[in-house]
């Protein structure tokens, strides 16, 4: 582990005691895809996760300015989950009698405003109070976590509700998703840490819903303690106990992500070498940020993985950062008829099998990168 010269300060509670729990060393910017004719080397930046001992927020330690490009294609899995989430929140009664909405979105896209308009909610102007303040994967992009959260809660009108959706740290730990850590994502939430952060703003957790997206995504409803607008139900207690069981505040447990990173990188490299040795062609699918971290960590180049296909036209002619592997179109992948397609985004399995039946039609198989099994 690298020693840090300046003692870190928590992005949420400003405490100065904590632990470096995951150190991925120097990593290229995972959203900045160089052109294929750019031979590199690509600039690299430190990538580390730090766990605050005081409020329990897991966060990005170093803060380099890393180039980031917004993504264009919104996977069907994300769209379906948003519809499911809005349905569940409505069923819980949280949308009735609430007419104004303010949305804090993710720079990667995906808005719920269309779905909420169908439920009678109208967006307010910037800075105006709203009955429903929604943050869907937005908050994690803020360097100053307490400042960003304060901005959101200040918009919640009297009797209003704050909805916060995040990829859960409990999931990251349980499933060894070490490559969820990336530049530009400053916080990795548990309900435990959010309860502390929201508590400092006079808000409490009221309801929680769990979704399979990214292996485990949580939507929380929170409201102001003084107005008692929303009653707390058992889902919050359950979530907090699941987080405690996963060990989301335990630096020793989170440090397991370091071993997970090592094991997955070695496993992937060995598997690719074995497939190549057996004379089978493997291509990748899903040029996502998680893919970049994994390929770099595993030291995979185009001799092991000749291409990664991606549906985003913006990535055509580009290569994966930190390696010489080109990004190709799904049509190119299909035309090659690979023996196996390594799916870097397991959430997309149903979607890609339906979209590219030719892969299996030609005798190829989809392989889940997390299990390396079809
Ligand atoms: Zn803290």
Describe it.
- By secondary structure, the protein is of the alpha/beta class.
- The strands form three sheets. It has a six-stranded mixed β-sheet, with helices on both faces. Strands 13-12-11-14-15 form a five-stranded parallel β-sheet. The chain has a four-stranded antiparallel β-sheet with strand order 1-2-3-8.
- Helix 9 links the parallel strand 11 and strand 12.
- The mean pLDDT is 92.
- It binds zinc ion.
- The site of zinc ion has 8 residues, from loops.
Q: Could you give a short description of this structure?
A:
The protein is α/β, with parallel strands linked by helices.
Detail the topology: elements first, then pairings:
Blueprint: E1 18-28, E2 44-52, E3 58-60, H1 76-91, E4 100-104, H2 113-117, E5 122-123, E6 130-136, H3 145-154, E7 156-167, H4 169-174, E8 187-188, H5 191-199, E9 203-211, E10 217-224, H6 234-246, H7 251-254, H8 256-277, E11 282-285, H9 289-298, E12 308-309, E13 327-328, H10 330-336, E14 340-343, H11 349-355, H12 357-361, E15 365-368
Parallel strand pairs: 4-5, 4-6, 6-7, 11-12, 11-14, 12-13, 14-15
Antiparallel strand pairs: 1-2, 2-3, 3-8, 7-10, 9-10
Helix pairs in contact: 8-9
The structure holds zinc ion.
